[in-house]
Amino acid sequence: MPDEPRAAGDSLPERAEIIEVRVAELKQLFNAIDPSPFREKDLDGAAEEFIVGWAREAPRDADLALLVYLDRSAGLADEATVLRDAVRAFFRHRSEASSRRLRQLFRLGRTSLLIGLAFLAASFLAGDAIAEALRGHRLGEVVQEGLLIGGWVAMWKPMEIFLYEWWPIRAETKLLDRLSAMPVRIAYMQDAHSEAWRRDWPAVSPAATPAAG
Description:
Largest sheet: 4 strands, mixed
Order of helices and strands: EEHEHHHE
Strand order of the largest sheet: 1-4-3-2
Strand content: 5-15%
Helix content: 40-55%
Number of strands: 4
Number of domains: 2
């Protein structure tokens, strides 16, 4: 077997914000109980939180890249490519889910706005009618003011959605889009020949896995 390379995978742009992760095995990056095929597997929760947290601290206009320091020598020739595809697919799915959440929020906002406007108009009309019917009575003024307050309270939800709730989701979607396109590179921390890669699922294919003795 030829000497293992010190690194494999995508080239890292010079000015990219490089997210650095160190693991003993590639499988530590992924959810161990997820039964999906490797390229569709979820990242481990801690790994996802670490990568996303680092990316949030990076400048918004910076390219992102992932550098995985792996405490073993190289294994299969395509393991860096497989890792990149899996990481990108994970964040692409997260981005799509975030986009769906934003669309659902806007649908809720539009519905809430229609309901709020209708209730506000009804409150104005009802308040004016009651005030007219009880003209000269303090009770009429109290009821009118209460209905007006209730009408404006009904506008709270759509105002919250369109003023505050949507833009954090949009920012999250953009961040996930950047993560779904980032180059991925593996730096091997051991030069010696080793069979450790054979135990490092999911980089190993079924054909390369040694049979149990």
